[in-house]
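All the exercises in this workshop are built on plain-text protein records. A learned vocabulary of local backbone shapes supplies the integers on the structure line. Once this layout is familiar, the rest of the handout is easier to follow. An example says more than a description, so a record of this kind follows:
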Amino acid sequence: MSETLRILHLSDTHLYGDGRLHYGLVDTLAALDRVLARAATIEAIDLVVASGDLSDDGSAESYRLLAGRLEPWASERDARVVYAMGNHDLAGPFEQVLGPREAVTVVDGFRVVTVDTVVAGAGYGRIDAARFDRLRAALAEPAEHGTVVVLHHPPVPPTTGLFETLRLVDPEALIDLCTAADVRLVLAGHYHHSLVTEMGPRRIPVVVAPAVANTTDVLWAPERERAVRGSGFAVVQLPVAGPVRAHLVSAPAPDDGETVYDLDPAAIQRIADSAGWSVRA
């Protein structure tokens, strides 16, 4: 048994079952293949985490494509695979192909708990009472080496304006529960850029993986929102004792940096009006 849980953390694959291109430009299946080829150089992996928005069209075929890539890759390394729901995922096809939306997996004494943050028809996330009760029950007794919580919507503030109304609503109860329990690490996606930060008085590490589909430009003009071509992943090491280490890795392609979309304030407002929490919460 390793003294460190070694995690390949990827997110936001946005696959299609029919081969369509994301925003009419990005071959997300090819991007996933590139990510896995880059990650194949890692010496050892115990766990593969895919933290939501795994599909863009919600089709069973898109989930079969994902599992057909991740499961053999993990099996070759004797690693487990954990999937979490994102706001673009559909519960029925997700569970048909990938298994339960919320699950508890134990890997070498580390407990991994997935939390469904999806609000049907919305872009923002929320943990309702039933989900919160299930999480509280899962965390009631400490695990041998502590717990990793995996969810799509990060429980920390967004960097760019688009995600302000697409964020996790009211994360305080989750933070309090994780602080009181044995949670040592939170893994999330959704923001389409890498972010390593902390939450709560215990300063629990939060690692937001870069997206496979595209990359949010965090340095773009704050009143606009831009995404560019580019894919990446996180490699996270969680030791039995000691601090978390996270490395954020790109899987480069010749067209990296080309604009995928550039939204003006009116377009951002339209997304907020149709999918944001300020209207629907």
Notes: The radius of gyration is 17 Å. The mean pLDDT is 97. Residues 157 and 253 are 30 Å apart (CA to CA). Helices lie at 28-39, 60-75, 91-98, 129-138, 172-180, 265-275, 277-280.
